Amino acid sequence: MAAVQEPVPLGTASRNGIASEEPKLVVAENGKTVDVQDKEVCTEGLCSISAYDQWTPLSVSGQLPRPRYKHGAVVVQEKMYVFGGNHNGRYLGDIQVLDFKSLSWSKLEAKSQSGPSESAEAVSCAGHSLIPWGNKILCLAGHTREPTESLSVKEFDPQTCTWSTLRTYGSSPSSCGGQSVTLVGDTLVVFGGEGNGRSLLNDLHILDLETMTWDEFATTGTPSPRSEHAAACFAERYLLIFGGGSHSTCFSDLHVLDTQTTRATRCYSRTKSRHAGVSDTLVLNMSTYEWSVVAGLEARAPPTSEGSSLVMHTINGENFLVSFGGYSGRYSNQVYALKASLKPSVPFPQINEAGTNGIALVPPISEAANSSRKVIFEIEELQDKPGNKADTSKTAAQVVKGERNQIEDKLNQEQLQSLRLKQELANVERRNTELTEELHLVRDQISAEQERASKLEDEVSEIQEQLQKMDALEKEFKLLRGEIDSGFDTAAASTNQPPGGVGFWRWSG
């Protein structure tokens, strides 16, 4: 995202890595010549790439990481750390390291500060963001197997291979994945992403790394809700948000947020080349808001475009872009590098409210310093800066293009709202179905209990009848027992009569 400058080759290097004493090189490009000073260069690792603006597959050693996409990558001390990602629907939690000097892979056995029982798999995630902070790595957000309510901030120490969860203060953002996290000074700016339930977000939160305190900006007119977009910081001041998508739309808009004046601006950028494709590598000229194709389809390019990681590393003043992984019909674990010929030379243009080119004012920094941090971002539509003020037809075309983009944005928002309503309706219908099934189940249970109660009542009735019969039998038994007892009493009385008694002798005879 800088002004275009001619590529500068490294020159001839000796075997000991020091440039040989040769005269300055003059490179002709676009009708211009550039003098290149002799300088110390290396010939190993990324420095072995000689061609500019071409993606080159790197020949790496060591055990290759598992193919993945939607992982995180960051550069710390000449090494690229790759963490997490998704492979066949499974969240990964391993940490792979690529040494830029030896171009060799190695795997770190990470542990948690909570104890040995919590392994690296406990922080497996995808769609997260990695940020270098000193000699440590911060990991924010991401989708996990067990979603949480709020966004978590974890820290990885490469020296001890230890994960720890940082304590934050204030109102933290909700859990999400596919967001952008950009380091601006000593603060992290979190924008957008996809929350739980696949809801798209466009809220803006900042985390002060000095106090570890969250703060939320109340925004109006911000970019439409999106995820998987790109964000970058320019001149330690401007936050650029580009592209991304919703559940049904891919965006190509560019928004610039001035972190000092708390003002957001949407820029209508232009593309120089008409053959830009999915695998193209584009660069934005910050002085003209024009996109240029650096490496197109006709050049060698990484075979994947979805969910790959992209980091930048500088060696001897040369900028290298390194791409890893991604998905394009299959998961990848390949590494590509591009040596950029572009150097920043033109500062970001000041924005003037009273100007006639349609660009809005940037208030003085002193005014911004006295303002509250919780301010409302104002979105002001920008037209393209015309190359020639007399070219009114071109300006009119740009105005029409801007209006068309506004209509397209409104249409996208309406489509997004429609999708949200359809999703809510589907959720309500699904919930209604679940409740209906639950009601039928409860009714079946009640019927079964009623039938069981009826059977119990019948059994109780039978038992009562049996008890009544037993009472009658007991009474009859008592009567019979009484008669038997009375018979024994009579017999006993008869044995007490004199021997001449008629009854006794008659019975004996």
Question: Would you kindly provide a written description of the structure presented here, covering whatever features stand out?
Answer:
The protein is an alpha+beta fold and about 500 residues long. It has a domain at about 50-390: Neuraminidase, CATH 2.120.10.80. The protein is built from 3 helices and 30 strands. It has a 5-stranded mixed β-sheet with strand order 10-14-13-12-11, with no helix packed on it. About 25% of the residues are buried. Residues about 1-40, about 115-120, about 275, about 345-390 and about 500-509 have low confidence and may be disordered.
Produce the secondary structure layout.
Elements: E1 25-29, E2 32-36, E3 55-57, E4 72-76, E5 79-83, E6 86-87, E7 90-91, E8 95-99, E9 104-108, E10 111-112, E11 129-133, E12 136-140, E13 153-157, E14 162-165, E15 176-177, E16 180-184, E17 187-195, E18 200-208, E19 213-217, E20 230-234, E21 238-242, E22 254-258, E23 263-267, E24 270-271, E25 281-285, E26 290-295, E27 309-315, E28 318-324, E29 335-340, H1 365-370, E30 379-381, H2 392-495, H3 502-508
Parallel strand pairs: 10-14, 23-30, 24-26
Antiparallel strand pairs: 1-2, 3-29, 4-5, 5-8, 6-7, 8-9, 11-12, 12-13, 13-14, 15-17, 16-17, 17-18, 18-19, 20-21, 21-22, 22-23, 25-26, 27-28, 28-29
What is the compact description of this entry?
With about 500 residues, this protein is α+β, with helices and mostly antiparallel strands. The protein is about 25% helix and about 30% strand.
List the main descriptive attributes of the protein structure presented here:
alpha+beta; 509 residues; Neuraminidase; 23% helix; disordered N terminus; five-stranded antiparallel sheet; disordered C terminus
